[in-house]
Write a structure and sequence with these properties.
Blueprint lengths: L1 H18 L2 H6 L1 E8 L7 E2 L1 H9 L1 H4 E13 L3 E12 L4 E13 L5 E12 L1
Parallel strand pairs: 1-6
Antiparallel strand pairs: 1-2, 3-4, 4-5, 5-6
Length: about 120
């Protein structure tokens, strides 16, 4: 059951990323989400801190394609493997990412904990 919810959540998250839809991204997060964009930094807390991160997506990248799959889930959340190809803007440099998200959903299927690990292969 949770695996299905995580897959639905990750499908919506990845499509919102491709669409550069900040409002959709924020709708998938709880009001007080702990959001680790970078594992070496302190988390962003809440939608207000996460919003600027996503506002720049529409001006600094153009996502071409993505894939995502839940590879682990338990009663708290799960791990989602994802790949994404994009062009970095304005240079147009093609980039390929391979990574995982750790996601915990609340009772409203909003993400209350998000952590991302990713690797970049630039061409």
């Amino acid at each position: 059951m949770l695996e299905e919810k995580l897959q639905k959540w990750s499908n919506e998250f990845m499509q919102a990323w491709k669409d550069a839809d900040t409002d959709k991204i924020l709708s998938l997060l709880s009001n007080n989400v702990r959001y680790y964009e970078d594992i070496f930094e302190e988390p962003l807390i809440g939608k207000k801190e996460v919003k600027p991160l996503w506002d720049v997506v529409k001006i600094n990248q153009k996502v071409h394609s993505y894939k995502n799959e839940v590879i682990y889930s338990d009663n708290k959340g799960g791990i989602i493997h994802w790949t994404l190809t994009r062009a970095s803007l304005p240079s147009g440099e093609e980039q390929e990412f391979n990574g995982v998200f750790e996601v915990h959903l609340n009772e409203n299927n909003e993400c209350e904990f998000f952590r991302m690990w990713r690797h970049l292969r630039a061409s």
